[in-house]
Amino acid sequence: MEKLIKTLENGERLSEEQAFKLYDLDLFTLAKYAHEKRSKLHGKKVYFNINRHINPTNICADTCKFCAFSAHRKNPNPYLMSHEEIMKIVDDTVKNDTKEVHIVSAHNKDTSWQWYLGIFKMIKEKYPQIHIKAMTAAEIDFLHRRFKMSYEEVIDKMLEYGVDSMPGGGAEIFDEQVRKKICNGKVSSENWLKIHALWHKKGRQSNATMLFGHIEEKEHRIDHMLRLRKLQDETGGFNAFIPLVWQVDNSFLEAKKIMDSEEILKTIAISRLVLDNIKNIKAYWATMGINLAMVAQEFGANDLDGTIEKESIQSAGGAKSAKGQSLKTFIDMIKTSNLIPIERDSLYNELRVY
Ligand code: V47
Q: What would the CATH number be for the domain defined by 2-353?
């Protein structure tokens, strides 16, 4: 333990062995070092963007047990949007100063790859200034399996059709044993990482998530972070790490135990310390609640994600995120915490300091 504290004191890279010991430290020791690191990188700045989440279909060929969004879950409400419907949402959201559309679909067998990708071309042609963050590695893997396209072919089409960056979804937990229990048949951990590496090789950026608080153990979270750290050493293409707190309603999975706020904050702090090569840690307010996401800004996080406007995946699992968050709430809450609100673009360029 002494050696671990010394490494933290010196702000040096944690060995894998040391990383696995971090959960044994108490919250405030972790917070001290995580906040130090966060302050060195970002000072008092808290980042967010003005974005719109769009989920064009919830009809899914995969059967992830943790998911409440998919149409064949406990709350069946299958839908598939037409491109016209999606464009109408985009037309409306650009009026609200939205800079990014974050588009994630379920894996719908009754569509074509053109349905998946064509919408990006339509959006880009009409609104070239809008950043399109779309296509999780799980969706890319689905198109590869369904339409016999190689990963490279899907990625080339994404670039041709106007995708700017990739979201971090589909990572769940990389440990193969846990993955088998919670999302058997979905993109493998190895292929999730391979797809992001291919995207990074094209000079593009992406995010990485981790779904936690279900049946995984603490060491699975550390293993997950270490696999990301290794790939980031090779490619440098990850912008942000996003620990997603699992929302328990309407799924076919039972959590080992419901996590408390201390464990959520510890996980944020640990991710800041382990992922020394990923610049941004997002406290995603949709899964942590806005209050805890604000507190997390003093435990290693430096970002809240965005205003979202409409959220369907986590709210299906019970999160209070269906209607997004107002810009005013973000700004007021950040200022009340004596921090500096920064509107950013999708690649973390600063657009406005409030
Ligand atoms: O991969 C599904 C997760 C992810 C639940 O890249 C759930 O900026 C909690 O990836 N409770 C999709 N999480 C969302 C996602 C994301 C979100 C915000 C920002 C970014 C980014 C990416 O949502 C899935 C899955 O891990 N998820 N169901 C649930 N009940």
A: 3.20.20.70
